[in-house]
């Protein structure tokens, strides 16, 4: 990396006070030919976030090993490798009126789907999306589930006799619940713990379907959950409905996770086999931690989180955390390297003040003075910035996003190579589709590119041509509805 040895001009902002301090700072910094101020912090950051091929390979192999260990017994590795009880995927024959309820982050969605079987497929869908008030993420289970059930009741009311049901038959719901759940059957499961910043009391250790049923009863709502699924599983089902080659589903949004089609005869912890010989495994890969290139900023963020030591992969690659890592780097650069000319804006110390969509917008700025970056920094942190400081900020964003995207790619290869090892040629020797959903993947072009680059580097161009990463937008809603239909009590 070429570093020009010129001393930086920090622009007309709050000057560094003493001449000695200024001299020390100037000796610590240089300016790249691109105009970025290079500081020891930036150099260290780029070194510790680097993901050359050997690092990617190590991560992919460790993912494969952890998957195997997690399939032997519960607690066998960081990866929970949860049995989903989804043993067959949609065929296209699914029929009837079903609902899907999706709870996984800051919103919940309710969807009504009219399925028309092989010929008509999805006849009609309607949906509603409701933001979950922030405070409900920290209150009681009853309060959260009452809120959801009342949203569902309002939506169900709008059906207003459009569809009739045979007497004694209840409306059925596919419930997508995007947190780690130990499934006890296709329609029941116990919340192991909350992730993604949720800290609702009273749910962990309890069946989430029972929580929803009780809340529906309190609302006087007569519906039943016929399938409880993770969002990855719902995405896989939704994508498989249209494409038989879908074998893996990945979510890259607020949180991250992956599921895949596994052979039941290679799952030691599963007793008995399914008629299809396959089942879907929810890996909960957000908890993966083996061999990740981490920095002091990741460790500090983890230590300050509500779940220290947990969800390390998620904290390194997913949308909830990328902005926060960048903020922590910028704070240190402002304090130690006078990134903003010696002025350390107070708001730079506010946790989660910088969100991943802001990081993304800054990276899309193509104006010559990086005006968008300047106004985002000003709006969020109330700081004026020189062009050089803005360039440095973009380079920090890129470093964190590049690491995230490439590690996500390595994770995908880890899953694919596990599947390939157990079924030679059936994954890499033919078209294999990875269904992908989540806002981070959808809205962040650089992240997407870094992810794809890592997959191609790891697999080589011949094999990677067969691996199609396909954006399956909102496939999880239809997916959950399809699984509700195929697991209907009345079918
Ligand atoms: C978190 C949850 C996981 C979910 C993922 C994506 O990692 O633990 O269940 O699939 O976020 O929403």
Automatic annotation (TrEMBL):
Pathway(s) annotated for this protein in UniProt: Carbohydrate metabolism; hexose metabolism; Carbohydrate degradation; glycolysis; D-glyceraldehyde 3-phosphate and glycerone phosphate from D-glucose: step 1/4
Keyword match Coiled coil: no
Cellular compartments per GO CC: cytosol; mitochondrion
EC number from the UniProt entry: 2.7.1.-
Molecular function terms from GO: ATP binding; D-glucose binding; fructokinase activity; glucokinase activity
Record-linked InterPro entries: ATPase_NBD, Hexokinase, Hexokinase_BS, Hexokinase_C, Hexokinase_N
Group of enzyme by EC: transferase
One of the GO biological process terms: intracellular glucose homeostasis
Boundaries of every Hexokinase C-terminal domain copy: 248-485
PROSITE patterns xref list: HEXOKINASE_1 (PS00378), HEXOKINASE_2 (PS51748)
PANTHER family: HEXOKINASE, HEXOKINASE-LIKE 1 PROTEIN-RELATED
Protein name from the UniProt record: Phosphotransferase
């Amino acid at each position: 990396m070429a570093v020009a040895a010129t001393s930086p001009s920090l622009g007309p902002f709050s000057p560094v006070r003493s001449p000695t301090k200024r001299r020390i700072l100037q000796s610590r910094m240089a300016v790249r030919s691109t105009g970025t101020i290079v500081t020891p912090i930036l150099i260290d950051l780029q070194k510790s976030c680097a993901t050359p091929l050997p690092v990617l390979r190590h991560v992919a192999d460790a993912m494969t090993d952890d998957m195997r260990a997690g399939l032997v017994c519960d607690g066998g590795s960081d990866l929970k490798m949860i049995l989903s009880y989804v043993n067959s995927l949609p065929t296209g024959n699914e029929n009837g009126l079903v609902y899907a309820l999706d709870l996984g982050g800051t919103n919940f969605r309710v969807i009504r789907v009219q399925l028309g079987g092989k010929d008509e497929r999805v006849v009609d869908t309607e949906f509603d999306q409701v933001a979950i008030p922030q405070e409900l993420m920290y209150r009681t289970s009853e309060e959260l589930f009452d809120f959801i059930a009342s949203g569902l009741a309002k939506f169900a009311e709008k059906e207003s006799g459009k569809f009739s049901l045979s007497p004694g038959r209840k409306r059925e719901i596919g419930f997508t619940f995007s947190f780690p759940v130990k499934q006890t059957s296709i329609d029941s499961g116990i919340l192991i713990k909350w992730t993604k910043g949720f800290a609702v009391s009273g749910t962990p250790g309890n069946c989430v379907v029972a929580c929803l049923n009780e809340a529906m009863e309190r609302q006087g709502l007569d519906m039943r959950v016929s399938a409880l699924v993770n969002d990855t599983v719902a995405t896989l089902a939704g994508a498989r409905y249209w494409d038989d080659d879908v074998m893996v589903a990945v979510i890259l949004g607020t949180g991250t996770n992956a599921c895949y089609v596994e052979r039941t005869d290679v799952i030691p912890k599963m007793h008995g086999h399914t008629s299809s010989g396959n089942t879907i495994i929810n890996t909960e890969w957000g908890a993966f931690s083996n061999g990740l290139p981490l920095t002091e900023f990741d460790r500090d963020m983890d230590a300050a989180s509500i779940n220290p030591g947990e969800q390390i992969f998620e904290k390194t690659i997913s949308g909830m955390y990328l902005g926060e890592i960048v903020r922590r780097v910028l704070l240190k650069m402002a304090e130690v390297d006078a990134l903003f000319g010696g002025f350390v804006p107070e708001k730079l110390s506010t946790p989660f003040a910088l969100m991943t969509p802001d990081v993304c917008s800054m990276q899309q700025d193509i104006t010559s003075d990086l005006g968008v970056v300047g106004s985002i920094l000003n709006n969020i942190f109330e700081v004026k910035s020189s062009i050089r400081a803005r360039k440095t900020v973009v380079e920090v964003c890129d470093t964190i996003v590049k690491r995230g995207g490439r590690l996500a790619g390595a994770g995908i290869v880890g899953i694919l190579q596990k599947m390939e090892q157990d079924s030679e040629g059936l994954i890499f020797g033919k078209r294999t589709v990875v269904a992908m959903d989540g806002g981070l993947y959808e809205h962040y072009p650089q992240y997407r590119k870094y992810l794809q680059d890592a997959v191609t580097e790891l697999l080589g161009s011949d094999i990677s041509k067969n691996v199609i990463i396909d954006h399956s937008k909102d496939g999880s809603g239809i997916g959950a509805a399809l699984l509700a239909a195929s697991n209907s009590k009345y079918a």
